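Researcher: I'd like a structural prediction for the single chain below. Treat it as a standalone chain; there are no partners to consider.
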Amino acid sequence: MDTLPGTPAISAPAALRRLYLTRFVVAAVWAALLFSTADNLGPFTAALLVIYPLFDVACAVIDIRSAQVNGRPVRGLHVNIALSALTGIGLAIAATSGIPAVLRVWGAWAVTAGIVQLIVGATRRQLGGQWAMIASGSLSTLAGASFIAQAGKDGASLSNLAGYAFLGGVFFLVSALRLGRTRTKATAGGQG
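Model: Treating it as a single chain, here is the predicted structure.
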């Protein structure tokens, strides 16, 4: 059961805001942990790499539940779940081959997930606060291409993945703040 009897369902902007704030916090903590271990692809770093796309799967599932309650389209979110789940598996395998393999898998995920995020953000424009998601999707696509290119160079490192995740978290924070602002304006406008 999602709500207690007699309590209203959470609005789409409120649910997204809470989800986006959670994503920011997790991305910031994850980035700090990865950055501290980025030069060594040991078991802890490999686990961190696999956890991140699996967290993305969990967030997309939560997002789908909210979207369905509020009558919003969810096709892009289903695609995101499939991409992130496959990436988790791919990263677990790539971690046994070294940093270049990890960068290639992460790069492919960043490109494809970025395109999906761009499309989902564009379809949610009317909710407000989505320009950051659109920008984040665009940048993710470019960053993914750079990770793939970096994988072919000497001295490839995972530290750029930490920066990528943190920046993605900042975009989620900006969207959460914009959604809060949109909600406050709508509430104030309705009281006039």
